[in-house]
Amino acid sequence: MPVSPFRIGWFVLSACLFTLLGYAVPRSQFPLLLTLYGLAFWGYWRITVPIRATRLTTDSGQFSNDSFQQPDLFLFAAAGLFRLLLLAALPCLSDDYVRFVWDGRLLAHGYNPFLYLPSQLIQTPIAATAGLSNSLFQSLNSPDYFTVYPPLNQAFFAAAARLSPNNVLGMVIGLRIPILLAEMGSLWLMTALLRRFNKNPNLALLYGLNPLVILELTGNIHFEGVMLFFVLLAIWLFVQGHFIRSAVALALGIITKLLPLILLPLVIRHLGWKRGLLYSSLTGAVTITLFLPFLSLDLVRNVFSSLNLYFQKFEFNASIYYLIRTVGYWIKGYNIIGRAGAGLFLASAGSILWVAFYTYRRPILSDLPTKILLTLTIYWLLATTVHPWYITSLVAASVFTTFRYPLIWSGVIILSYTTYRALPYHENLWLTGLEYAIVVGFAVHEWHNQRVETDNLLLKQRR
């Protein structure tokens, strides 16, 4: 089937924009970043209009538009090509990759990266042996914190260091390859799951073509892409009835990023206490086993020290926390992040349990995507730190629901990059407020509409 001129024009424009954003626009150039990203997001929104418009009918379970039953090969190919364009780019919007290089070189030379603070390690024989230079140290964004990246991440870091021991760009390419492969795997799993639930497989393109997903995961080397692949694999294996394999896949997601831990209450609710606890125990056992090569009392102490500092010191692009912080300044006269961070963590834990056990009377598999989306939404709204790439998990979950506010969030969260316009970094809280006003307003509208539709359906069934 011939490709329309609009699609060709969109593809060429988007490819140019992703290339510029990936290779030539540092985060300090916020006006240019905002303009180019805005154009990329506009193109994404336009090209996905027919995909976002398709829904299942409630009576027959068939697609409302038959022309979207088959995967759109052109758009899926575009999703892959946009990521390939970024293969050789040194990340412009994030410096997290420097810590990946640091940890990878340590592990590749036989040193446990969980045991050493960079600020204490530099100028030592270990640093010299591992090729940890002063220039690399100066580029680290958290030299006084122990690493918090789990074992599978560390394995990827070390593999990239072995492939390119002396060249940072070569190591960056080595780090990017598993993310790129995971992203392709995630798109395949999404289409398979969508077909399994009799939904339009092209809905996966809402994730695959999303500019935030492309730039932050493949472009800026954030391993949420690998984590999401393993979570999707766990769900796919679970749907296929492979209980043990699913638990192992979820454990692999956890040892990439710890975020999937918050999904375990949902698993217990849907499987029941006996099977759910068995599944969770198996997941925990695999997770601990994969931590064993690094395990020591120092590791536990160091990781918990960094996590504690994360929840009680780090703050960026938050919503509810910033409101609490403002009240704290009025009442106490100082930043109450220590107490507020702990309180919000407990509130988040309680909310996750509430979503899992009390929001629905019957655990239905078709409700699971919505409950995952609600869990993640509450978690990030209560967080003290919300970096742009964190929202990619919400974008992935939204693919399987009728909710589109995560897509809106993926567009407006670019406003948070105004923080990096100059040194020292300073957040523009007016733009942060605008971001959350748009997101929360759209989310409340969608959740209200969902509630009305549900009530109308129940009323119709009673009649």
The parts where pLDDT drops under 50 for at least 5 residues are: 56-68
The DSSP helix count reads 23
Largest sheet: none
Question: Structural class of the helix and strand makeup?
Answer: mainly alpha
| Approximate helicity band | 55-70%
Taken as a percent bin, the fraction of beta residues is: under 5%
Pattern of helices and strands: HHHHHHHHHHHHHHHHHHHHHHH
| Average pLDDT over all residues | 90
Q: Radius of gyration from the CA trace?
A: 22 Å
- What is the overall silhouette? globular
How would you characterize the overall build of this protein?
The chain has 463 residues and is mainly alpha-helical. Helix content is 66%, strand content 0%. It is built from 23 helices and no strands. Helix 15 (264-271) packs parallel to helix 19. The longest helix has 34 residues, at 429-462. The protein starts with a helix and ends with a helix. Mean pLDDT is 90; it is low at 56-68.
Give the helices and strands, then pairings.
Blueprint: H1 5-23, H2 30-47, H3 49-53, H4 73-84, H5 96-108, H6 118-121, H7 125-130, H8 134-138, H9 151-163, H10 168-196, H11 205-208, H12 211-219, H13 224-239, H14 243-254, H15 264-271, H16 273-291, H17 297-313, H18 320-332, H19 337-358, H20 368-381, H21 392-398, H22 405-412, H23 429-462
Short structural summary:
By secondary structure, the chain is mainly alpha-helical.
What key phrases describe this protein's structure?
463 residues; mainly alpha
